Amino acid sequence: AAAVSVTGLTKVYRGGKRALDGVSLDVPRGAFFGLLGPNGAGKSTLINILAGLVIKTAGTARIWDRDIDRTPRAAKAAIGVVPQELNLDPFFTPRELLDVQAGMYGVPRAERRTMEILDIVGLADKADSYARTLSGGMRRRLLVAKAMVHSPPVLVLDEPTAGVDLELRQHLWEAVRGMNAQGVTILLTTHYLEEAEQLCDRIAIINHGKLAALDTTAALLGRI
Ligand code: ADP
Ligand code: ADP
């Protein structure tokens, strides 16, 4: 089975904007999958439907074989979502933040992997520093760690490098690659072709709410 599977996914916002128009795609388990498309293509809408933040108009979506309508809690437990905004309480430390998150997801204390997760994202030495002392890049990596607290098999990132200094993106990619190397399926949106090319093994291109192409990165870029 696929990690994420959507069929005929359609979203018409109030006011009539058709942001997604019958998109069907499968994200294979273990993939590093890129959702590529220009601004306004519908990428965030698709991600937000999976995250439970936007209600779809039509179609189906399954995460790790759990239907988001029939078993929404189980579907939600199977993904971690890294939001675009860097909203973190400045007076919480990474350790505290991950503890609160683990509590919300009901992860028993004995099963919490706080330091292991902070280590993967390169923040082990910042475990007890206030978030206010962390750089923008470190905050985003902390949000990756936060999304992984309940050990979801799928990690979703919406434009993770928006606002991150070009030169400092590398740290973030190392963190996400580290998650993928641990077996986590990655689904990220981007409007940078080079970013998708460098990171992803499979790319879906969406434009005006429709799937324009879907293939391995090598096959897709060979064709362009
Ligand atoms: P992307 O992430 O690819 O930039 P979005 O999914 O954010 O695209 O947006 C797709 C289209 O839907 C755009 O035309 C956008 O303006 C519109 N849209 C997004 N959110 C809303 C909303 N809450 N209400 C109405 N239109 C929206
Ligand atoms: P990235 O955006 O890739 O995460 P950072 O901006 O976090 O990169 O910084 C790169 C390196 O500089 C970090 O690994 C860290 O060692 C150091 N650094 C940056 N900001 C701070 C800070 N506020 N406090 C301590 N060290 C920092």
Give a short overview.
32% of the residues lie in helices and 27% in strands. It has eight helices and ten strands. The chain has helices at residues 43-50, 72-77, 94-104, 114-120, 136-147, 169-181, 193-199, 217-223; strands spanning 4-12, 18-27, 32-36, 58-63, 66-67, 79-82, 154-158, 185-190, 202-207, 210-216.
Describe this structure in words.
The chain has 224 residues and is an alpha/beta fold. Helices cover 32% and strands 27% of the residues. It has helices spanning 43-50, 72-77, 94-104, 114-120, 136-147, 169-181, 193-199, 217-223, and strands at 4-12, 18-27, 32-36, 58-63, 66-67, 79-82, 154-158, 185-190, 202-207, 210-216. Strand 1 and strand 2 form a beta hairpin. Helix 5 (136-147) runs parallel beside helix 6 (169-181). The mean pLDDT is 93. One adenosine-5'-diphosphate binds at residues 13, 15, 17, 19, 37, 39-45.
Features of the shown structure:
single chain, 224 residues, alpha/beta, 4-stranded antiparallel β-sheet, binds adenosine-5'-diphosphate
Extract low-pLDDT stretches: none
Compute the average pLDDT. Answer: 93
> Number of DSSP strands?
10
Radius of gyration: 17 Å
Largest sheet descriptor: 6 strands, mixed
Distance between the termini: 30 Å
**Structural class of the helix and strand makeup?**
alpha/beta
Shape summary: globular
Bound molecules: adenosine-5'-diphosphate
Question: What spatial order of strands do you see in the largest sheet?
Answer: 6-7-8-3-9-10
Helix-strand layout with pairing:
Elements: E1 4-12, E2 18-27, E3 32-36, H1 43-50, E4 58-63, E5 66-67, H2 72-77, E6 79-82, H3 94-104, H4 114-120, H5 136-147, E7 154-158, H6 169-181, E8 185-190, H7 193-199, E9 202-207, E10 210-216, H8 217-223
Parallel strand pairs: 3-8, 3-9, 6-7, 7-8
Antiparallel strand pairs: 1-2, 1-4, 4-5, 9-10
This protein binds adenosine-5'-diphosphate (2 copies).
